[in-house]
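Regression check, A1CAB case 280:
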Amino acid sequence: MLEGRICFVGAGAMAEAILCGMLNHKIVKPGQISVTNRDDRFRLDELVYNFGVVGDSSQKYRSIQEADILILAMKPKDISTALEEIRAYTSQEQLVISVIAGISTKQISEFLGHQAPVIRTMPNTSAIVGLSGTGVCAGEFAKAEHIQVAREIFEAIGLVIVTDEEKLDAITGLSGSGPAYVYYLVEAMLEGGKAVGLSEQEAKDLILQTVIGAANMLIETNESPAYLREKVTSPNGTTQAGLDVLKQYQFQEAVKQCVVRATERSKELGAQSSVTLKKQ
Ligand SMILES: NC(=O)C1=CN([C@@H]2O[C@H](COP(=O)(O)OP(=O)(O)OC[C@H]3O[C@@H](n4cnc5c(N)ncnc54)[C@H](O)[C@@H]3O)[C@@H](O)[C@H]2O)C=CC1
Ligand SMILES: O=C(O)[C@@H]1CCC=N1
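Current build output:
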């Protein structure tokens, strides 16, 4: 169990995924968690109703002030306004954990204007089912004990890799955004299944089992994806015919460039926020 109070600043999809994962894994009680956002009290009511957390918009600053851990979960474009509004209610005694794409620990410290320990993370929405892959790194003022707290939170919602901050943009482009790439593939396979005469339900059931089966094969056999692919591919068989079409459309290069571009975008989001900070 984690001790103390946790306050989410930003109460959208990612905040919900993390708090849902933490509660499912019972590392905190609902009463330890507060949720705050800019001004949408209906959204807070929804989280209070669904999870039993604390979400009284009239107590926003008090929730922030009384928190031991602040989890920053607003969009990168909103961080400067958000921290400008709340920084007077934050202190160096608090641990600040960010899930925001592209924003460095140094930028967060500059926005806060004090030396609170900052941990930058990049989870993904599979946190809801306890299967996030999360990259975690420490900022200048964070110590091993702070990494340990972040590890405890994010291990409750999946796998954690503690790493250097220079890798966080890459983790954002690979596994932060990664679930969307897999869903996109599933969408395409659904269309394929329907094009060859399966019903939507038949195609969906078979695709999901195929994705789960392939993921489990990768984990349990510890074989490379290339080796496992070759085992499926009989010479001149059906898989070979299908993969030839993927090659024709440069599937592997497209996916590689997708990760590269998403990583670049993470860096751009950070750079855009620095510009906002300088203008203040
Ligand atoms: N959705 C995803 O798959 C992932 C998102 N992230 C990161 O998580 C962060 C949040 O993303 P989502 O939850 O998807 O966004 P969202 O749009 O669902 O939620 C954003 C929340 O921030 C709040 N907010 C906006 N301005 C604010 C302000 N000035 N003060 C306080 N709260 C404010 C909004 O009211 C909303 O509750 C982003 O920075 C994103 O980069 C990280 C990993 C995965
Ligand atoms: O698309 C985004 O910017 C966020 C960050 C990682 C996943 N979603």
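Comparison notes: The chain has twelve helices and seven strands. The pocket of NAI (ligand 1) is lined by residues 9-15, 37-38, 40, 43, 73-76, 78, 81-82, 99-101, 122-125, 176 (CB under 6 Å). No diff flagged against the previous build.
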